[in-house]
Amino acid sequence: MARFWVCVAGAGFFLAFLVLHSRFCGSPVLRNFAFAVSWRTEKSLYRLDVDWPKHPEYFTGTTFCVAVDSLNGLVYIGQRGDNIPKILVFTEDGYFLRAWNYTVDTPHGIFAASTLYEQSIWITDVGSDFMILWLHGENGTGPAKFNIPHSVTLDSAGRVWVADRGNKRIQVFDKDTGEWLGAWNNCFTEEGPSSVRFTPDGKYLIVAQLNLSRLSVVAAPPVGSIGECSVISTIQLADQVLPHLLEVDRKTGALYVAEIGAKQVQKYVPLNSYVPAFGS
């Protein structure tokens, strides 16, 4: 028994030595070790809503995209496959309402833009012919150039945030002039972002990384500054879940994640003490 407690004390002393040496001597190996420890013990900002949806059997294809109509309490899901409904509509509580298969061939992205006077849903359909109305940048690795620009979102300051997936970065532009404002790449050394959205309060960005099956909560920079990417928390999904695109409910702050590997959409509910909902 005494030998056991001697081993425990020795392990504690060794860990304390590592932390102190990392802090005062700047060893990169030890810094990485300390980071790994803190990464595993970080506080969660979201929890999985295991009761959403009520009837997952309606997911009969590969779920590529999701959009939330916060005004009407509706969740739209686009899925691909043969002889299946391409668009599914659920309530925010997870109840299935309806589906349709006409006018849509191969949905890739979906966006809800409803107002108090009408409901409006926009769908990017890669199986249909379309015309480019506006184009910025070209293929490449420099500023304002792209390699698989996969998702785009807008903040309250009028900045456009583009998930430049192939270049492993997020690029930022002025929405009116198209001026390049900066880029984040320090958070995406393993894999580029596949989707990006802001929380309702504008304090955080939620970023999906497809092949890592990971969601990251990133601190949003103040107006007038881009700075560097700073990860606050992560949600590590199971292997091969493959989160493709995500959406944030502008009223509740809930996350809806379209997972092409798991062929489902999952809902994550914010812990209010960390991520306040819109208007709180």
UniProtKB/TrEMBL annotation:
<dbReference type="GO" id="GO:0043161">
    <property type="term" value="P:proteasome-mediated ubiquitin-dependent protein catabolic process"/>
</dbReference>
<feature type="repeat" description="NHL">
    <location>
        <begin position="137"/>
        <end position="176"/>
    </location>
</feature>
<dbReference type="InterPro" id="IPR001258">
    <property type="entry name" value="NHL_repeat"/>
</dbReference>
<protein>
    <submittedName>
        <fullName>NHL repeat containing 3</fullName>
    </submittedName>
</protein>
<dbReference type="InterPro" id="IPR011042">
    <property type="entry name" value="6-blade_b-propeller_TolB-like"/>
</dbReference>
<dbReference type="InterPro" id="IPR050952">
    <property type="entry name" value="TRIM-NHL_E3_ligases"/>
</dbReference>
<keyword id="KW-0677">Repeat</keyword>
<dbReference type="GO" id="GO:0000209">
    <property type="term" value="P:protein polyubiquitination"/>
</dbReference>
<dbReference type="Pfam" id="PF01436">
    <property type="entry name" value="NHL"/>
</dbReference>
<dbReference type="GO" id="GO:0061630">
    <property type="term" value="F:ubiquitin protein ligase activity"/>
</dbReference>
